Fold this sequence. Notes:
The chain has 503 residues and is α/β, with parallel strands linked by helices. The protein is 39% helix and 11% strand. The chain has a single domain, classed as Glycosidases (TIM Barrel). It has helices at 29-40, 76-81, 87-91, 108-122, 128-140, 145-157, 168-171, 175-184, 186-212, 230-234, 272-277, 281-293, 329-338, 355-363, 406-412, 415-425, 432-442, 452-455, 486-498; strands spanning 8-12, 45-47, 216-221, 249-253, 263-268, 296-299, 307-312, 322-325, 345-347, 368-371, 394-397, 447-451. Helix 1 (29-40) links the parallel strand 1 (8-12) and strand 2. The chain is globular. The model has no long low-confidence stretch (mean pLDDT 95).
Amino acid sequence: MKAPDLRRAGVLLHPTALPGPGGCGSFGQACQDWLALLGRHGIGVWQLLPLAPTDGTGSPYSSPSGSALNPWLLDGEQLVQQGFLQWADLEMLPGADAGAGPLNLDAMPARSQAMGEALARRWPAQPTKQKQAFARWRRRQRGWLADHALFMVIRRLQGGKPWWLWPEPLARRQGQALRRIAAQQASGLLAEELLQWQLQRQWLQLRKQAERSGVQVLGDLPFYVAHDSADVWAHPALFSLQGDGRLTAQSGVPPDYFSATGQLWGTPVYRWPLHLFTGFRWWLARLQRQFELFDLLRLDHFRALQAFWSVPGDATTAEHGHWAWFPGWPLLTLLWLRQGMNLPLIAEDLGVITPEVEALRDGFGLPGMKILQFAFNGDSTNPYLPANIQGPHWVVYTGTHDNATTVGWWQSLDGDSRQRLAEAVGAPITAPAWQLLELALASPANLAVVPLQDLLELDDRARFNTPGTSTGNWTWRLEQPIADLEGKLQGYGEMAARYQRRS
């Protein structure tokens, strides 16, 4: 497991966008077919967004757990085939008849809860071998699993209220109150833990398939964790909280390309002195969990390891924050030593990047990111211009999940920028998504990644996320079966091979 050191081509596609029954993509047949398609055409990297449970808006970057997997992705058909459920259980799930169409954010929580309840109901009849395997897994995951299950069960009992509005004995994790919950809600806790066990079983089978197919899986880790999360509830001293659980300081970024008032994320910033004092125990455990799940890991908002934008806890915009310094070197050094002096990380180094951030990234040999949609504003020194990408330690993208699709970007592009793109391509622009992709493949970067929407030449109706907005995001799904992507992936593989990017 290491950062990309060979020329590879990749595709960005989150599993929720896969086709299939139940109204949401899953770790089921479509996912298996997708991996087989990538392997068949030499596409060596599959990039995902965080696999964590989502918040109320569907965002995987604001999760109630930094270590759990999203139960929406659990494939019910495999559970039936393996004897954990029966077909009747699937037929009774909310949204059982849902198929194609956008992800229904309102329906999925009820569906996954009902699947967990069905797993718990069928559990007493499972063979001893399965119960022993589950018990072993629970012991290995005890650092996060029990807190996650308790958090999810209590939150439902409290009508979805955030943890700092729970009754004080529960908010402050008093032992007697938690023991009472454990006794009274044993079935609910079992359901949450079984969901996570089955999710990991299915995901690791996919990982094995990816390895056989020559495909590396690139995950994504948000830098911060949600205020209303099991992580913050279980470890409040590690975060910028008042005694009543409210924020003393929150995260975000100053005004930038995406927003004139900055981005206010509403997550607590870290109390870094305490993390340093504990030898970064919480951070190292968090990262180790991700390394169990992925070959490579994109560390979102990498620049916060050098300095982070801290905004007062009661602020409503990110305009009036300040940069607070943190020496990321000790954390990365510990991780570097633990990983055998090789970090399988990619630094998301977008935004306000200083020489100090670059020194931190380069000091550990981490690839940075280049976004070609940012390149054609007329500035010849623009670091995203293909001609200005120097050396192989980069991941170059046409766009990311936060950008317009390339077709949507092209449609909104002014005439001068269109001309500059044509000059970079050396030809008239007739297929902007594929022509921008060829610029990425031709670059010296070790890894070139394209969102699937760009391969399919889709406009902004297929956009996945618009930063700074809270509605209409994360819901796009493929409208066609995986088999119908054969021609596009074959063409991509052949183009990648011309640039020595065939895995």
